[in-house]
Amino acid sequence: MNSLVKNRSEILFIYDVTDANPNGDPVDENKPRIDEETGVNVVTDVRLKRTIRDYLHDFKKEEIFVREIRDEDGYLQDAKMRAEDFLVDQNGEKIDKKSLKIVQEMEQVVKQNVLNNCIDVRLFGATIPVELDKKGGSVTLTGPTQFKLGRSLHKVDMTYIKGTGAFASAPGKEQFTFREEYILPYSLIVFYGVVNENAAKTTNLTEDDVDLLIEALWNGTKNLISRSKFGQMPRLLLQVIYKEDDYHLGELDRFVKLMSDKRDEEIRDISEVRLDATQLANRLEEVKEKIEEIRYKKDERLVLERDGRAVNVNTLAKGIKFEALEF
Predict the structure, then answer these.
(1) What would the 3-class secondary structure string for the chain be?
(2) Which of 232, 231, 280, 275 is nearest to 255 (CA)?
(3) In angstroms, what CA-CA distances link 209 with 55, 176, 182, 187, 307?
(4) Nearest alpha-carbon partner for 316 in 285, 271, 293
(5) If 0-12 CB within 10 Å is exposed, 13-18 middle and 19+ buried, where does residue 16 land?
(6) What's the pLDDT tens digit per position in 215-228?
(7) Which among 142, 116, 148 is positioned nearest to 128, based on CA atoms?
């Protein structure tokens, strides 16, 4: 049974990047985002949601509201045009806007159809603009699933690369074009998120939707194989599911620490680091009576430690049920 989400859960997701740009800043030469104060790599939640959306659409064949759609002339569809894709009746037939009397009628139809069809809106919410007879309105839905900015667990080293292209720099020229880019030799990034069971009621978020979200985090990251994104691997995924209403521990990303014998900027591979989860394990044990279970997936190359000793995820914290994710 595909029931609505009833339990709040927290998500801890850790992945790494090797010789790639995990999230370029378009206003700064598309350089990887670096916190100037700390030297750590920053990845926006928008980039993570894009990874999730692309996987759900391309691999799971789910309808996605926020995606690039172009008309026959190649023009990019705007949000109002996208909203009108969902102005249909119960039989899927297009509704003539002229038959609607007020903007609120259009808002209600679009809202219902978007929620019925678009998993990304059920997960992340959306502000959907509509227009009827030059009168504007919007459907605003708060997303049950929210992520903080992702941050690397260490300072990173940004590298500038310059090379030659495959074509002449201009007609009749013998010189090749040049290409330049900025990459990170290595970055181990942690994301933290919450699935809010209260907000889930407003978007009709289901348990199946959350299962697909969890799968998309892992497999979507693994399938980022474009030239600029190739080199990203998921390393650890935890979903802490609570049985007490309106409760979550919070800040799980603050309770893990990277350990290495090398200086931060010298790290180049997951084999050169260990993940200290001692504080995380202690905090989980402190609230174990409030936890239903923890679902997890871990890459075999990641070394997870508690109190200086390597441990398996399912033995990380005592008195808590752990379930391995299979996908």
Answers:
(1) CCCECCCCEEEEEEEEEEEECCCEECCCCCEECECCCCCEEEECHHHHHHHHHHHHHHCCCCECCCCCCECCCCCECCHHHHHHCCCECCCCCECCHHHCCCHHHHHHHHHHHHHHHEHHHHHHEEEEEEEECCEEEEEEEECCEEECCEEEEEECCCEEEEEEEEEECCCCCCCEEEEEEEEEEEEEEEEEEEECHHHHHHHCCEHHHHHHHHHHHHHHHHCCCCCCCCCEEEEEEEEEEECCCCCCCCCHHHHCEEECCCCHHHCCCHHHCEEECHHHHHHHHHCHHHEEEEEEEECCCCCEEECCEECCHHHCCCCCCEEECCC
(2) 280
(3) 13, 49, 36, 29, 36
(4) 285
(5) buried
(6) 999 999 999 987 77
(7) 142
Give the least confident one: 72-86, 224-238, 253-267, 294-308.
224-238
Q: Count other C-beta atoms under 10 Å from residue 196's C-beta.
A: 19
How far is residue 78's CA from residue 69's CA, in Å, rounded to a whole number? 9
Nearest-Å Rg of the Cα atoms of the chain is 23
pTM of this structure: 0.93
Q: Taking Cα atoms as reference points, which of 281, 205, 224, 214 lies closest to residue 249?
A: 281
pLDDT by residue (tens digit) across 169-225?
A: 556 666 656 668 999 999 999 999 999 999 999 999 999 999 999 999 999 999 998
Tell which residue, 116, 3, 121, has the closest CA to residue 52.
Answer: 121
**Pair of tokens at residue 64:** 């996605």
Q: What are the Cα distances from residue 113, in Å, to 63, 108, 267? A: 11, 9, 48
- Contact predicate 65/121, CB 8 Å: yes
In angstroms, the CA 52 to CA 155 distance is 26
Tell me the backbone φ, ψ of residue 208, rounded to 5 degrees.
Answer: -65, -40
